[in-house]
C-alpha cells in the first residue's frame, strides 16, 4: 500500500469549553480528491487548519509522506507543498491579477524593484496551466466576478507547485457555470497529480469529481466511503445519524458490502 | 491613484477564447485618466485659469513663488500621510510632530552653538536637523508599534500622540518660541528657506520626495506591500508579507515627513513656536483625500498628494487676492473635499 501524502492520527483540539476535534483520523492519498462533509460546526475547517498549522493541535500526529510534522504556521506547511484556498479567496482587490498571483513574492530586480514584465509573463504561464478564464493579467481583481476571483486564488495556490490543495467551501458563492468550471479545474489538477480536499455542503459537487468522501460529526469521525461505491443518500444518513461507534472506513464498508 | 496600475504593459498574446466580450477600456477610462487624481488635476487647472482671469496678480512671479512655498510644507507631509492612508491607517499627530521636530532642531542648534562642535563647518546644523528628525522617528516608531504590534486603532493612537507631542512642545519650551542660532545659521536658512535658480528649496524637496515616493510605491517590493496591506491585510499576511514591519515603516516615514516639513517651516519663520502647524493635520488629510487617497486603504499616490495640497493653497490664495474673507476658505475646502469624493463616486458608479 502506498504511503498517504497526508495522514493525521488521533487529532484533539479544544477551544475553551468546546471539544472541536475528538480523536479524529484522516488520510489523503497522492492525487486523490477527498470530499470533507458534515453539518455546521462538525470541525471540517478546524481539521484542515490543524493540518496547515493555522491552528495548533492539542494532541495527535500529522504526517506528511509518512514523516511527522509540527507546522507552526501555514507558511511552514506551504514549504511542504500544502496550500489552502480560503472561502473569501484572500485577494487584494485594488491590485491586478498578476500582482495577486505573486502577492508578497514578486520576482525582483536587484532585490528591491518588482520585475513587472517577468511577473506578468509567469502569471500568464500559471493561468495557462490552469486553463482558467481570466482574460488579462492586468485586470484589477475587484472588477472580476466571484468565479474569476476564485480562479486567481487557485492560480496563486498552484504557482507554489503544491502537492495538496484544500478548498474551503469553494462552490458556496459560485454560479452554476462557475461551479462547472471549477470542477473541471479540479479534475485538471488531479490529472497533474495534485491531491485535493474539498470542504463543501454540496454533495452533488463532491460526487461529480471526488474519489472518496469523509464525514465528520461534532468533531468526530463517523465514517468515509468511496464515491464509486456509495450514494448521496447513504452519505446524508451518515451526516444526520452516523455515530463514531458505527463508523466504517471506506475499505471496511467495501468489504462489508462484498 | 497614480497611472499604470493597469496600463503599463501591453496585453500580450493571451488567448481570450470565450471572453471576446471583455476588451480593454479606452485610454481615457483606465489608469491615471480614470482616477480621482486626474479629475482633481483638471479642476485645479480650471481654477487656476479662472483665478488668473479674475486677478492679474495671481500669476505674477511673486505670487506663484509664494503659493509654491506655502503649499510645499503641507505637500511634503501629505506625501507621508498618503503612504499611511494607502495602508488603511491615519496619522493625526503630524501637526504636533511638525512643531516638536522644529523645536528640537532649534533647541539643539542653540545648545550646540556653545560647544566645541561650533568650530566644525556645518556640524551644528547637521546634528540639529538630525535631532529634529530623530524626534520625529521616535514618535513614528511609537505610533507604528502601538498600531502594528499592540493592535490599537490608528485613529485613537495618533489622536493621543497629537496631544502628547503638542504638550511636549509647550512643556519643553514653556510656551516660548525657539530661535535657531549658532555659527551655521546662514547655512541653515539656505538649506531650509533658500532658492536654487529662483525655485524655493521647499518646492525642490517636495518634488524630489514625490518623485522618489512614486518610484518606491510603484516599482519596489516595499511599495507593493503597502498597497497589498491596504487592499486586504489578511491576504497580505497569509502570503508572507511582514505586515508589522511595513506598518511601522509607513508611520515612521509619515512622521519623518512631518518632522522635515516642521524644520523647513522653522527656516521660513525664523523661529519654532510651540503652536507651529496647529490644526495642520486636518488640512493634510484633506489634501490627501482630495488628491484621491482612499481612507479605506489601497488607493493613493504622490501625484494626488501634490495636486491635493496645491489645490487647497490655490483656493486659499485666490480668495485672499479676490478680497474675500479668509474664513470662507475653510468652508470652501470642506466643500471641495466632499465634492472630490462625490465626483469619484458618481464616476465609478457609472463605470460599474
TrEMBL record, chain A:
<dbReference type="GO" id="GO:0016887">
    <property type="term" value="F:ATP hydrolysis activity"/>
</dbReference>
<keyword id="KW-0547">Nucleotide-binding</keyword>
<dbReference type="InterPro" id="IPR003439">
    <property type="entry name" value="ABC_transporter-like_ATP-bd"/>
</dbReference>
<dbReference type="GO" id="GO:0005524">
    <property type="term" value="F:ATP binding"/>
</dbReference>
<feature type="domain" description="ABC transporter">
    <location>
        <begin position="6"/>
        <end position="243"/>
    </location>
</feature>
<dbReference type="InterPro" id="IPR050107">
    <property type="entry name" value="ABC_carbohydrate_import_ATPase"/>
</dbReference>
<keyword id="KW-0762">Sugar transport</keyword>
<dbReference type="InterPro" id="IPR027417">
    <property type="entry name" value="P-loop_NTPase"/>
</dbReference>
<dbReference type="Pfam" id="PF00005">
    <property type="entry name" value="ABC_tran"/>
</dbReference>
<dbReference type="InterPro" id="IPR003593">
    <property type="entry name" value="AAA+_ATPase"/>
</dbReference>
<keyword id="KW-0067">ATP-binding</keyword>
<keyword id="KW-0813">Transport</keyword>
<protein>
    <submittedName>
        <fullName>Simple sugar transport system ATP-binding protein</fullName>
    </submittedName>
</protein>
TrEMBL record, chain B:
<feature type="transmembrane region" description="Helical">
    <location>
        <begin position="71"/>
        <end position="90"/>
    </location>
</feature>
<protein>
    <submittedName>
        <fullName>Ribose transport system permease protein</fullName>
    </submittedName>
</protein>
<feature type="transmembrane region" description="Helical">
    <location>
        <begin position="194"/>
        <end position="217"/>
    </location>
</feature>
<keyword id="KW-1133">Transmembrane helix</keyword>
<feature type="transmembrane region" description="Helical">
    <location>
        <begin position="96"/>
        <end position="120"/>
    </location>
</feature>
<feature type="transmembrane region" description="Helical">
    <location>
        <begin position="248"/>
        <end position="270"/>
    </location>
</feature>
<keyword id="KW-0472">Membrane</keyword>
<feature type="transmembrane region" description="Helical">
    <location>
        <begin position="282"/>
        <end position="312"/>
    </location>
</feature>
<dbReference type="Pfam" id="PF02653">
    <property type="entry name" value="BPD_transp_2"/>
</dbReference>
<feature type="transmembrane region" description="Helical">
    <location>
        <begin position="38"/>
        <end position="59"/>
    </location>
</feature>
<keyword id="KW-0812">Transmembrane</keyword>
<dbReference type="GO" id="GO:0022857">
    <property type="term" value="F:transmembrane transporter activity"/>
</dbReference>
<feature type="transmembrane region" description="Helical">
    <location>
        <begin position="324"/>
        <end position="343"/>
    </location>
</feature>
<dbReference type="GO" id="GO:0005886">
    <property type="term" value="C:plasma membrane"/>
</dbReference>
<feature type="transmembrane region" description="Helical">
    <location>
        <begin position="127"/>
        <end position="146"/>
    </location>
</feature>
<keyword id="KW-0813">Transport</keyword>
<keyword id="KW-1003">Cell membrane</keyword>
<dbReference type="InterPro" id="IPR001851">
    <property type="entry name" value="ABC_transp_permease"/>
</dbReference>
<keyword id="KW-0997">Cell inner membrane</keyword>
Amino acid at each position: 500500500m502506498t504511503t498517504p501524502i497526508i495522514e493525521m492520527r488521533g487529532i484533539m483540539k479544544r477551544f475553551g469549553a468546546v471539544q472541536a476535534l475528538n480523536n479524529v483520523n484522516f488520510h489523503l492519498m497522492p492525487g486523490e480528491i477527498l470530499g470533507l462533509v458534515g453539518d455546521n460546526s462538525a470541525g471540517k475547517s478546524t481539521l484542515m487548519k490543524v493540518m496547515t498549522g493555522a491552528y495548533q493541535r492539542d494532541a495527535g500526529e500529522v504526517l506528511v509522506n509518512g514523516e511527522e510534522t509540527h507546522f507552526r504556521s501555514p507558511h511552514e506547511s506551504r514549504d511542504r507543498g500544502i496550500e489552502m484556498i480560503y472561502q473569501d479567496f484572500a485577494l487584494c482587490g485594488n491590485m491586478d491579477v498578476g500582482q495577486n498571483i505573486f502577492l508578497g513574492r514578486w520576482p525582483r530586480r536587484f532585490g528591491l524593484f518588482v520585475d513587472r514584465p517577468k511577473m506578468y509573463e509567469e502569471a500568464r504561464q500559471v493561468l495557462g496551466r490552469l486553463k482558467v478564464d481570466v482574460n488579462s493579467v492586468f485586470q484589477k481583481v475587484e472588477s472580476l466576478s466571484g468565479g474569476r476571483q476564485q480562479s486567481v486564488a487557485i492560480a496563486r495556490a498552484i504557482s507554489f507547485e503544491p502537492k495538496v490543495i484544500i478548498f474551503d467551501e469553494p462552490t458556496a458563492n459560485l454560479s452554476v457555470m462557475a461551479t462547472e468550471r471549477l470542477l473541471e479545474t479540479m479534475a485538471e489538477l488531479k490529472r497533474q497529480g495534485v491531491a485535493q480536499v474539498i470542504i463543501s455542503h454540496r454533495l452533488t459537487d463532491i460526487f461529480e469529481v471526488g474519489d472518496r468522501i469523509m464525514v465528520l460529526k461534532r468533531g468526530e469521525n463517523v465514517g468515509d466511503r468511496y464515491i464509486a461505491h456509495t450514494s448521496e443518500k447513504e452519505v446524508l444518513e451518515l451526516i444526520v445519524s452516523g455515530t463514531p461507534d458505527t463508523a466504517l472506513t471506506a475499505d471496511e464498508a467495501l468489504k462489508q458490502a462484498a | 491613484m497614480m497611472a499604470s496600475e493597469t496600463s503599463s504593459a501591453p496585453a500580450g498574446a493571451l488567448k481570450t477564447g470565450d471572453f471576446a466580450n471583455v476588451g480593454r477600456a479606452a485610454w481615457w477610462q483606465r489608469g491615471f485618466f480614470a482616477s480621482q487624481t486626474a479629475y482633481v488635476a483638471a479642476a485645479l487647472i480650471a481654477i487656476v485659469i479662472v483665478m488668473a482671469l479674475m486677478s492679474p496678480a495671481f500669476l505674477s512671479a511673486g505670487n506663484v513663488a509664494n503659493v509654491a512655498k506655502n503649499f510645499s510644507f503641507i505637500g511634503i507631509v501629505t506625501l507621508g500621510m498618503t503612504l499611511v492612508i494607502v495602508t488603511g491607517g491615519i496619522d493625526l499627530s503630524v501637526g504636533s510632530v511638525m512643531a516638536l521636530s522644529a523645536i528640537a532642531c532649534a533647541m539643539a542648534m542653540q545648545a550646540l552653538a556653545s560647544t566645541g562642535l561650533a568650530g566644525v563647518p556645518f556640524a551644528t546644523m547637521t546634528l540639529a536637523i538630525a535631532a529634529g528628525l530623530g524626534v520625529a522617528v521616535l514618535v513614528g516608531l511609537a505610533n507604528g508599534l502601538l498600531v502594528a504590534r499592540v493592535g490599537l486603532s490608528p485613529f485613537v493612537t495618533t489622536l493621543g500622540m497629537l496631544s502628547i507631542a503638542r504638550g511636549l512642545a509647550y512643556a519643553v519650551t514653556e510656551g516660548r518660541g525657539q530661535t535657531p542660532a549658532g555659527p551655521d545659521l546662514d547655512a541653515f536658512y539656505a538649506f531650509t528657506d533658500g532658492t536654487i535658480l529662483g525655485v524655493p528649496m521647499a518646492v525642490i524637496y517636495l518634488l524630489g520626495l514625490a518623485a522618489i515616493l512614486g518610484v518606491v510605491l510603484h516599482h519596489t517590493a516595499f511599495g507593493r506591500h503597502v498597497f497589498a496591506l491596504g487592499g486586504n491585510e489578511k491576504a497580505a499576511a497569509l502570503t508572507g508579507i511582514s505586515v508589522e514591519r511595513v506598518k511601522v515603516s509607513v508611520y515612521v516615514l509619515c512622521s519623518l515627513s512631518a518632522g522635515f516639513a516642521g524644520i523647513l517651516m522653522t527656516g521660513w519663520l525664523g523661529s519654532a513656536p510651540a503652536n507651529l502647524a496647529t490644526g495642520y493635520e486636518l488640512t493634510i488629510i484633506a489634501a490627501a483625500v482630495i488628491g484621491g487617497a482612499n481612507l479605506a486603504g489601497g488607493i493613493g499616490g504622490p501625484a494626488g498628494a501634490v495636486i491635493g495640497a496645491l489645490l487647497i493653497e490655490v483656493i486659499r490664495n485666490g480668495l485672499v487676492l479676490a478680497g474675500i474673507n479668509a474664513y470662507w476658505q475653510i468652508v470652501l475646502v470642506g466643500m471641495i473635499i466632499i465634492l472630490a469624493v462625490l465626483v469619484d463616486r458618481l464616476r465609478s458608479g457609472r463605470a460599474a
